[in-house]
Amino acid sequence: MNNTMKKEREPLFSPKNIKLLKNPFNLENPITVQVLGICSALAVTAQLKPAIVMALSVTIVTAFSNLIISSLRDTIPSRIRIIVQLVVVATLVIIVDQVLKAYVYDVSKKLSVFVGLIITNCILMGRLEAFAMGNKPWPSFLDGIGNGLGYGAILVTVGIIRELFGSGKLYGFPIIPEAAFKAGYVNNGMMILPPMALVIIGVIIWLQRSKNRELIDKS
Amino acid sequence: MENLFNLFVRSIFIDNMIFAYFLGMCSYLAVSKTVKTSIGLGVAVIFVLLITAPLNWLVDTYVLKAGALKWLSPSLADLDLSYLSFLIFIAVIAAVVQLVEMFVEKFSPPLYNALGIFLPLIAVNCAILGVALFVQERDYQSISEVTVYAAGSGVGWFLAITAIAAIKEKIRYSAIPPGLRGLGISFILTGLMAIAFMSFMGIKI
Predict the structure, then answer these.
(1) What's the CA gap between A168 and A154, in Å, rounded?
(2) Which of A23, B80, B106, B125 could form a disulfide with A28 if both were Cys (CB 3.0 to 4.6 A apart)?
(3) How far does Cα B15 stand from its chain's mean position?
(4) d(CA A132, CA B88)
(5) pTM beyond 0.80
(6) Number of helices (H) and strands (E), helices first, in chain B?
(7) How far apart are CA B118 and CA B44, in angstroms?
(8) Contact A140/A67 with Cβ under 8 angstroms?
(9) CA A141 to CA A118: how far, in whole Å?
(10) What are the 10-residue block averages of pLDDT along chain A, 219 residues in total?
(11) Distance from B4 to chain A by nearest Cα, in Å?
Protein backbone atom coordinates (compact mmCIF):
# COMPACT_ATOMS: atom_id res chain seq x y z
CA MET A 1 0.00 0.00 0.00
CA ASN A 2 3.02 2.21 0.46
CA ASN A 3 3.90 3.87 -2.85
CA THR A 4 7.59 4.21 -2.07
CA MET A 5 7.93 0.46 -1.82
CA LYS A 6 6.99 -0.01 -5.46
CA LYS A 7 10.62 0.45 -6.54
CA GLU A 8 11.32 -3.21 -5.77
CA ARG A 9 11.74 -5.50 -8.71
CA GLU A 10 8.62 -7.51 -7.93
CA PRO A 11 5.50 -5.36 -7.86
CA LEU A 12 3.68 -5.34 -4.53
CA PHE A 13 0.59 -6.97 -5.91
CA SER A 14 2.16 -9.34 -8.42
CA PRO A 15 0.03 -12.31 -9.50
CA LYS A 16 1.95 -14.50 -7.05
CA ASN A 17 1.11 -12.21 -4.15
CA ILE A 18 -2.53 -11.89 -5.18
CA LYS A 19 -2.69 -15.65 -5.12
CA LEU A 20 -1.48 -15.61 -1.50
CA LEU A 21 -4.46 -13.44 -0.68
CA LYS A 22 -7.06 -15.32 -2.69
CA ASN A 23 -6.20 -18.99 -2.22
CA PRO A 24 -7.20 -19.20 1.45
CA PHE A 25 -10.79 -18.39 0.46
CA ASN A 26 -11.28 -21.62 -1.38
CA LEU A 27 -8.63 -24.19 -2.24
CA GLU A 28 -6.43 -23.55 0.79
CA ASN A 29 -9.05 -22.46 3.28
CA PRO A 30 -7.57 -22.72 6.76
CA ILE A 31 -10.67 -24.28 8.30
CA THR A 32 -12.16 -26.54 5.67
CA VAL A 33 -8.96 -27.69 3.91
CA GLN A 34 -5.96 -27.19 6.17
CA VAL A 35 -8.01 -28.11 9.29
CA LEU A 36 -6.44 -25.32 11.35
CA GLY A 37 -7.93 -23.07 13.95
CA ILE A 38 -11.26 -24.70 14.59
CA CYS A 39 -10.60 -24.62 18.32
CA SER A 40 -11.44 -21.14 19.41
CA ALA A 41 -13.69 -20.32 16.50
CA LEU A 42 -16.98 -22.16 16.58
CA ALA A 43 -18.15 -21.02 19.98
CA VAL A 44 -18.33 -17.38 18.87
CA THR A 45 -20.58 -17.94 15.84
CA ALA A 46 -24.01 -17.99 17.52
CA GLN A 47 -24.40 -14.36 16.42
CA LEU A 48 -22.92 -12.33 13.59
CA LYS A 49 -21.34 -9.51 15.56
CA PRO A 50 -18.94 -11.52 17.74
CA ALA A 51 -18.08 -13.61 14.68
CA ILE A 52 -17.03 -10.49 12.74
CA VAL A 53 -15.03 -9.11 15.67
CA MET A 54 -13.32 -12.46 16.16
CA ALA A 55 -12.52 -12.74 12.43
CA LEU A 56 -10.96 -9.26 12.39
CA SER A 57 -8.93 -9.92 15.54
CA VAL A 58 -7.56 -13.17 14.14
CA THR A 59 -6.71 -11.50 10.81
CA ILE A 60 -4.80 -8.71 12.54
CA VAL A 61 -2.89 -11.08 14.81
CA THR A 62 -2.06 -13.52 11.98
CA ALA A 63 -0.89 -10.77 9.63
CA PHE A 64 1.35 -9.00 12.14
CA SER A 65 2.77 -12.13 13.76
CA ASN A 66 3.63 -13.42 10.27
CA LEU A 67 5.29 -10.08 9.51
CA ILE A 68 7.30 -9.99 12.74
CA ILE A 69 8.39 -13.63 12.73
CA SER A 70 9.28 -13.41 9.06
CA SER A 71 11.52 -10.40 9.66
CA LEU A 72 13.19 -12.19 12.57
CA ARG A 73 13.37 -15.58 10.87
CA ASP A 74 17.14 -15.55 10.34
CA THR A 75 17.95 -14.64 13.94
CA ILE A 76 15.66 -17.09 15.77
CA PRO A 77 17.51 -20.25 16.86
CA SER A 78 15.41 -23.14 15.63
CA ARG A 79 15.45 -24.99 18.97
CA ILE A 80 13.52 -22.30 20.80
CA ARG A 81 11.45 -21.01 17.90
CA ILE A 82 8.13 -22.23 19.33
CA ILE A 83 8.62 -20.18 22.50
CA VAL A 84 9.66 -17.11 20.48
CA GLN A 85 6.59 -17.49 18.26
CA LEU A 86 4.32 -17.91 21.28
CA VAL A 87 5.71 -14.78 22.92
CA VAL A 88 5.24 -12.67 19.78
CA VAL A 89 1.70 -13.98 19.30
CA ALA A 90 0.78 -13.56 22.98
CA THR A 91 1.98 -9.94 22.94
CA LEU A 92 -0.15 -9.16 19.88
CA VAL A 93 -3.17 -10.87 21.43
CA ILE A 94 -2.77 -8.82 24.62
CA ILE A 95 -2.85 -5.65 22.50
CA VAL A 96 -5.98 -6.83 20.65
CA ASP A 97 -7.65 -7.83 23.91
CA GLN A 98 -6.97 -4.46 25.55
CA VAL A 99 -8.30 -2.62 22.47
CA LEU A 100 -11.46 -4.75 22.43
CA LYS A 101 -12.00 -4.18 26.15
CA ALA A 102 -11.64 -0.44 25.65
CA TYR A 103 -13.84 0.06 22.59
CA VAL A 104 -16.36 -2.82 22.32
CA TYR A 105 -16.71 -3.99 25.90
CA ASP A 106 -19.96 -5.93 25.41
CA VAL A 107 -18.55 -7.99 22.54
CA SER A 108 -15.35 -8.54 24.50
CA LYS A 109 -17.45 -9.96 27.38
CA LYS A 110 -19.27 -12.25 24.95
CA LEU A 111 -16.04 -13.55 23.45
CA SER A 112 -14.80 -14.19 27.03
CA VAL A 113 -11.81 -16.53 26.98
CA PHE A 114 -11.81 -16.97 23.23
CA VAL A 115 -9.79 -13.82 22.58
CA GLY A 116 -7.01 -15.23 24.76
CA LEU A 117 -7.32 -18.53 22.96
CA ILE A 118 -6.23 -16.89 19.69
CA ILE A 119 -2.72 -17.56 21.08
CA THR A 120 -3.12 -21.28 20.71
CA ASN A 121 -5.14 -21.00 17.53
CA CYS A 122 -3.53 -23.49 15.19
CA ILE A 123 -3.81 -21.10 12.22
CA LEU A 124 -1.16 -18.89 13.78
CA MET A 125 1.36 -21.60 14.58
CA GLY A 126 0.58 -23.39 11.33
CA ARG A 127 1.16 -20.34 9.13
CA LEU A 128 4.21 -19.23 11.11
CA GLU A 129 5.82 -22.65 10.78
CA ALA A 130 4.73 -23.34 7.22
CA PHE A 131 5.11 -19.91 5.65
CA ALA A 132 6.64 -17.10 7.69
CA MET A 133 9.76 -19.07 8.70
CA GLY A 134 10.72 -19.48 5.05
CA ASN A 135 9.47 -16.39 3.24
CA LYS A 136 10.07 -12.65 3.05
CA PRO A 137 8.08 -10.28 5.29
CA TRP A 138 5.74 -8.82 2.63
CA PRO A 139 4.47 -12.12 1.19
CA SER A 140 4.16 -13.42 4.76
CA PHE A 141 2.06 -10.40 5.71
CA LEU A 142 -0.23 -11.02 2.72
CA ASP A 143 -0.39 -14.72 3.59
CA GLY A 144 -1.45 -13.77 7.11
CA ILE A 145 -4.19 -11.44 5.86
CA GLY A 146 -5.39 -14.02 3.34
CA ASN A 147 -5.58 -16.82 5.88
CA GLY A 148 -7.18 -14.60 8.49
CA LEU A 149 -9.87 -13.52 6.04
CA GLY A 150 -10.37 -17.05 4.70
CA TYR A 151 -10.99 -18.12 8.29
CA GLY A 152 -13.22 -15.11 8.79
CA ALA A 153 -15.28 -15.99 5.71
CA ILE A 154 -16.24 -19.34 7.27
CA LEU A 155 -16.93 -17.75 10.65
CA VAL A 156 -19.18 -15.11 9.12
CA THR A 157 -21.05 -17.65 6.97
CA VAL A 158 -21.73 -19.85 10.00
CA GLY A 159 -22.62 -16.74 12.03
CA ILE A 160 -25.15 -15.58 9.41
CA ILE A 161 -26.81 -18.99 9.15
CA ARG A 162 -27.03 -19.47 12.92
CA GLU A 163 -28.29 -16.00 13.76
CA LEU A 164 -30.78 -15.84 10.87
CA PHE A 165 -32.40 -19.20 11.55
CA GLY A 166 -31.78 -19.28 15.29
CA SER A 167 -33.13 -15.88 16.29
CA GLY A 168 -34.47 -14.35 13.06
CA LYS A 169 -32.03 -11.45 13.22
CA LEU A 170 -28.84 -10.32 11.51
CA TYR A 171 -26.27 -8.24 13.38
CA GLY A 172 -28.98 -7.70 15.98
CA PHE A 173 -31.57 -6.29 13.54
CA PRO A 174 -34.77 -8.28 12.99
CA ILE A 175 -34.86 -9.68 9.44
CA ILE A 176 -37.74 -12.12 9.44
CA PRO A 177 -40.94 -10.02 9.48
CA GLU A 178 -43.48 -10.14 12.32
CA ALA A 179 -46.09 -11.40 9.87
CA ALA A 180 -44.12 -14.61 9.34
CA PHE A 181 -44.17 -15.32 13.08
CA LYS A 182 -47.92 -14.63 13.18
CA ALA A 183 -48.40 -17.04 10.29
CA GLY A 184 -46.82 -19.79 12.38
CA TYR A 185 -43.08 -19.48 11.64
CA VAL A 186 -40.90 -20.46 14.61
CA ASN A 187 -37.21 -19.81 15.21
CA ASN A 188 -35.06 -22.93 15.28
CA GLY A 189 -33.70 -22.89 18.82
CA MET A 190 -31.32 -25.71 17.97
CA MET A 191 -29.29 -23.31 15.80
CA ILE A 192 -28.06 -21.33 18.79
CA LEU A 193 -26.75 -24.39 20.59
CA PRO A 194 -23.12 -25.47 20.09
CA PRO A 195 -23.73 -28.76 18.18
CA MET A 196 -25.22 -26.98 15.16
CA ALA A 197 -21.98 -25.06 14.54
CA LEU A 198 -20.24 -28.38 13.98
CA VAL A 199 -22.96 -29.70 11.69
CA ILE A 200 -23.01 -26.49 9.62
CA ILE A 201 -19.23 -26.61 9.15
CA GLY A 202 -19.56 -30.26 8.14
CA VAL A 203 -22.12 -29.33 5.49
CA ILE A 204 -19.96 -26.43 4.22
CA ILE A 205 -17.05 -28.85 3.82
CA TRP A 206 -19.34 -31.25 1.97
CA LEU A 207 -20.53 -28.56 -0.45
CA GLN A 208 -16.99 -27.31 -1.07
CA ARG A 209 -15.62 -30.78 -1.72
CA SER A 210 -18.39 -31.77 -4.08
CA LYS A 211 -17.50 -28.69 -6.13
CA ASN A 212 -13.72 -29.17 -5.99
CA ARG A 213 -13.24 -32.88 -6.47
CA GLU A 214 -9.45 -32.75 -5.95
CA LEU A 215 -10.00 -31.97 -2.25
CA ILE A 216 -11.79 -35.26 -1.52
CA ASP A 217 -10.00 -37.54 0.96
CA LYS A 218 -8.45 -40.61 -0.63
CA SER A 219 -9.09 -43.09 2.17
CA MET B 1 -16.86 -32.31 49.24
CA GLU B 2 -20.26 -32.57 47.56
CA ASN B 3 -19.53 -29.32 45.82
CA LEU B 4 -16.25 -30.66 44.44
CA PHE B 5 -17.86 -33.83 43.14
CA ASN B 6 -20.56 -31.77 41.51
CA LEU B 7 -17.91 -29.63 39.82
CA PHE B 8 -16.10 -32.76 38.61
CA VAL B 9 -19.21 -34.26 37.00
CA ARG B 10 -20.22 -30.91 35.53
CA SER B 11 -16.85 -30.35 33.90
CA ILE B 12 -16.82 -33.83 32.37
CA PHE B 13 -20.31 -33.95 30.91
CA ILE B 14 -21.94 -30.53 30.75
CA ASP B 15 -19.06 -28.12 30.25
CA ASN B 16 -17.22 -30.64 28.12
CA MET B 17 -14.18 -29.05 26.50
CA ILE B 18 -14.92 -30.43 23.04
CA PHE B 19 -18.70 -30.51 22.88
CA ALA B 20 -19.54 -27.28 24.65
CA TYR B 21 -16.50 -25.09 23.96
CA PHE B 22 -14.76 -26.70 20.96
CA LEU B 23 -11.38 -26.48 22.67
CA GLY B 24 -8.56 -28.71 21.52
CA MET B 25 -10.35 -29.47 18.25
CA CYS B 26 -7.15 -29.46 16.16
CA SER B 27 -5.50 -32.42 17.83
CA TYR B 28 -8.94 -33.97 18.40
CA LEU B 29 -9.48 -34.14 14.63
CA ALA B 30 -5.89 -34.87 13.62
CA VAL B 31 -4.79 -37.53 16.12
CA SER B 32 -8.01 -39.55 16.44
CA LYS B 33 -7.10 -42.12 13.76
CA THR B 34 -6.89 -45.11 16.13
CA VAL B 35 -8.16 -45.71 19.66
CA LYS B 36 -4.69 -46.51 20.97
CA THR B 37 -3.05 -43.20 20.05
CA SER B 38 -6.11 -41.27 21.21
CA ILE B 39 -5.86 -42.87 24.65
CA GLY B 40 -2.18 -41.89 24.78
CA LEU B 41 -2.93 -38.27 23.88
CA GLY B 42 -5.91 -38.14 26.23
CA VAL B 43 -3.86 -39.35 29.19
CA ALA B 44 -1.10 -36.86 28.34
CA VAL B 45 -3.66 -34.03 28.31
CA ILE B 46 -5.07 -35.01 31.74
CA PHE B 47 -1.51 -35.22 33.09
CA VAL B 48 -0.43 -31.80 31.81
CA LEU B 49 -3.73 -30.18 32.87
CA LEU B 50 -3.32 -31.47 36.43
CA ILE B 51 0.06 -29.72 36.66
CA THR B 52 -0.48 -26.51 34.69
CA ALA B 53 -3.95 -25.50 35.92
CA PRO B 54 -3.07 -25.32 39.66
CA LEU B 55 0.29 -23.73 38.80
CA ASN B 56 -1.34 -21.04 36.67
CA TRP B 57 -3.91 -20.45 39.41
CA LEU B 58 -1.11 -19.91 41.95
CA VAL B 59 0.67 -17.50 39.60
CA ASP B 60 -2.58 -15.65 38.97
CA THR B 61 -3.52 -15.39 42.65
CA TYR B 62 -0.11 -14.50 44.06
CA VAL B 63 1.46 -12.48 41.24
CA LEU B 64 -0.93 -11.22 38.58
CA LYS B 65 -4.25 -10.24 40.18
CA ALA B 66 -4.91 -6.70 41.36
CA GLY B 67 -3.18 -6.37 44.72
CA ALA B 68 -1.84 -9.91 44.59
CA LEU B 69 1.73 -8.85 45.24
CA LYS B 70 0.83 -7.55 48.71
CA TRP B 71 2.67 -10.47 50.33
CA LEU B 72 5.93 -9.16 48.85
CA SER B 73 5.71 -5.62 50.16
CA PRO B 74 2.76 -3.40 51.15
CA SER B 75 3.83 -0.77 48.61
CA LEU B 76 2.91 -3.16 45.75
CA ALA B 77 -0.70 -3.49 46.92
CA ASP B 78 -2.19 -1.39 44.12
CA LEU B 79 -0.28 -3.07 41.32
CA ASP B 80 -2.48 -4.86 38.75
CA LEU B 81 -0.60 -7.13 36.36
CA SER B 82 -3.63 -9.03 35.07
CA TYR B 83 -3.12 -7.74 31.51
CA LEU B 84 0.02 -9.91 31.40
CA SER B 85 -1.93 -13.09 32.11
CA PHE B 86 -2.00 -14.43 28.51
CA LEU B 87 1.75 -14.10 28.19
CA ILE B 88 2.52 -15.61 31.59
CA PHE B 89 0.01 -18.47 31.22
CA ILE B 90 1.34 -19.60 27.86
CA ALA B 91 4.94 -19.28 29.10
CA VAL B 92 4.13 -21.42 32.16
CA ILE B 93 2.41 -24.02 29.97
CA ALA B 94 5.26 -24.21 27.44
CA ALA B 95 7.86 -24.43 30.21
CA VAL B 96 5.95 -27.08 32.17
CA VAL B 97 5.42 -29.20 29.07
CA GLN B 98 9.14 -29.01 28.30
CA LEU B 99 10.05 -29.92 31.90
CA VAL B 100 7.57 -32.78 32.06
CA GLU B 101 8.95 -34.13 28.81
CA MET B 102 12.53 -34.09 30.12
CA PHE B 103 11.50 -35.49 33.51
CA VAL B 104 9.47 -38.35 32.07
CA GLU B 105 12.24 -39.18 29.61
CA LYS B 106 14.74 -39.50 32.46
CA PHE B 107 12.70 -41.34 35.05
CA SER B 108 10.17 -43.43 33.18
CA PRO B 109 11.21 -44.50 29.66
CA PRO B 110 8.11 -46.68 29.13
CA LEU B 111 5.82 -43.76 29.94
CA TYR B 112 7.96 -41.57 27.69
CA ASN B 113 7.56 -44.02 24.83
CA ALA B 114 3.81 -43.93 25.31
CA LEU B 115 3.35 -40.17 25.78
CA GLY B 116 6.57 -38.70 24.37
CA ILE B 117 5.44 -37.81 20.88
CA PHE B 118 2.29 -36.15 22.18
CA LEU B 119 3.84 -33.85 24.74
CA PRO B 120 5.13 -31.18 22.29
CA LEU B 121 1.68 -31.14 20.65
CA ILE B 122 0.07 -30.32 23.96
CA ALA B 123 1.81 -26.96 24.48
CA VAL B 124 -0.35 -25.51 21.71
CA ASN B 125 -3.51 -27.45 22.59
CA CYS B 126 -6.22 -24.87 23.20
CA ALA B 127 -7.80 -27.00 25.93
CA ILE B 128 -4.83 -26.42 28.25
CA LEU B 129 -4.79 -22.64 27.90
CA GLY B 130 -8.59 -22.72 27.84
CA VAL B 131 -8.77 -24.31 31.29
CA ALA B 132 -6.31 -21.75 32.68
CA LEU B 133 -8.41 -18.89 31.28
CA PHE B 134 -11.73 -20.38 32.43
CA VAL B 135 -10.29 -20.77 35.94
CA GLN B 136 -9.33 -17.10 35.87
CA GLU B 137 -12.69 -15.98 34.47
CA ARG B 138 -14.85 -18.05 36.82
CA ASP B 139 -12.80 -16.98 39.80
CA TYR B 140 -12.37 -20.33 41.55
CA GLN B 141 -11.48 -19.76 45.18
CA SER B 142 -9.33 -22.68 46.31
CA ILE B 143 -6.64 -24.84 44.77
CA SER B 144 -8.68 -28.01 45.34
CA GLU B 145 -11.50 -26.58 43.23
CA VAL B 146 -9.06 -25.74 40.45
CA THR B 147 -7.47 -29.19 40.52
CA VAL B 148 -10.85 -30.92 40.42
CA TYR B 149 -12.00 -28.71 37.54
CA ALA B 150 -8.77 -29.45 35.62
CA ALA B 151 -9.16 -33.19 36.22
CA GLY B 152 -12.78 -33.12 35.08
CA SER B 153 -12.01 -31.17 31.92
CA GLY B 154 -9.14 -33.52 31.11
CA VAL B 155 -11.31 -36.61 31.59
CA GLY B 156 -14.03 -35.04 29.43
CA TRP B 157 -11.53 -34.38 26.65
CA PHE B 158 -10.16 -37.92 26.99
CA LEU B 159 -13.67 -39.40 26.68
CA ALA B 160 -14.43 -37.30 23.61
CA ILE B 161 -11.27 -38.18 21.68
CA THR B 162 -11.52 -41.89 22.54
CA ALA B 163 -15.15 -41.99 21.46
CA ILE B 164 -14.53 -40.28 18.10
CA ALA B 165 -11.52 -42.54 17.44
CA ALA B 166 -13.65 -45.63 18.07
CA ILE B 167 -16.37 -44.33 15.75
CA LYS B 168 -13.82 -43.46 13.06
CA GLU B 169 -12.39 -47.00 13.23
CA LYS B 170 -15.86 -48.43 12.62
CA ILE B 171 -16.92 -45.94 9.99
CA ARG B 172 -14.06 -46.88 7.69
CA TYR B 173 -16.26 -49.66 6.32
CA SER B 174 -19.33 -47.54 5.57
CA ALA B 175 -20.29 -46.00 2.25
CA ILE B 176 -20.06 -42.26 2.85
CA PRO B 177 -20.67 -39.76 0.01
CA PRO B 178 -17.23 -38.85 -1.40
CA GLY B 179 -17.42 -35.15 -0.52
CA LEU B 180 -18.24 -35.93 3.09
CA ARG B 181 -15.45 -38.46 3.62
CA GLY B 182 -12.85 -37.72 6.28
CA LEU B 183 -13.19 -34.23 7.66
CA GLY B 184 -16.85 -33.57 6.82
CA ILE B 185 -18.25 -36.64 8.50
CA SER B 186 -16.02 -36.09 11.54
CA PHE B 187 -17.63 -32.69 12.07
CA ILE B 188 -21.15 -34.01 11.71
CA LEU B 189 -20.38 -36.95 14.03
CA THR B 190 -18.99 -34.57 16.63
CA GLY B 191 -22.16 -32.50 16.28
CA LEU B 192 -24.31 -35.56 16.91
CA MET B 193 -22.19 -36.56 19.90
CA ALA B 194 -22.54 -33.04 21.24
CA ILE B 195 -26.33 -33.32 20.96
CA ALA B 196 -26.15 -36.58 22.92
CA PHE B 197 -24.02 -34.94 25.60
CA MET B 198 -26.54 -32.12 25.90
CA SER B 199 -28.93 -34.56 27.51
CA PHE B 200 -26.74 -34.33 30.63
CA MET B 201 -27.64 -30.67 30.96
CA GLY B 202 -29.22 -29.70 34.25
CA ILE B 203 -27.88 -32.70 36.17
CA LYS B 204 -27.07 -31.82 39.75
CA ILE B 205 -25.78 -34.14 42.43
Answers:
(1) 20
(2) A23
(3) 12
(4) 24
(5) yes
(6) 9, 0
(7) 7
(8) yes
(9) 18
(10) 48 77 79 75 82 91 93 85 87 93 89 84 84 89 90 90 87 83 84 86 88 72
(11) 23
- Quick check: B91 and A122 CB within 8 A? no
ipTM over 0.90: no
Q: Which residues of A touch B120 (CB under 8 A)?
A: 82
3-class secondary-structure state, position A135? coil
Cα–Cα distance list, A67 to A74, A128, B195 (Å)? 13, 9, 41
**Alpha-helical regions (H) of B32-142:** 35-59, 85-107, 109-115, 119-123, 126-138
Is A20 exposed, middle or buried, given 0-12, 13-18 or 19+ CB atoms closer than 10 A?
A: buried
- A172 CA to chain B: closest CA distance, Å? 23
Name chain A contacts of B23, Cβ cutoff 8 Å.
39-40, 117
Dist CA A87 CA B88 (whole Å): 9
Chain B residues in contact with A193 by the CB 8 A cut-off are 198
List, for residues B56-68, the tens digit of each pLDDT value.
999 998 888 887 7
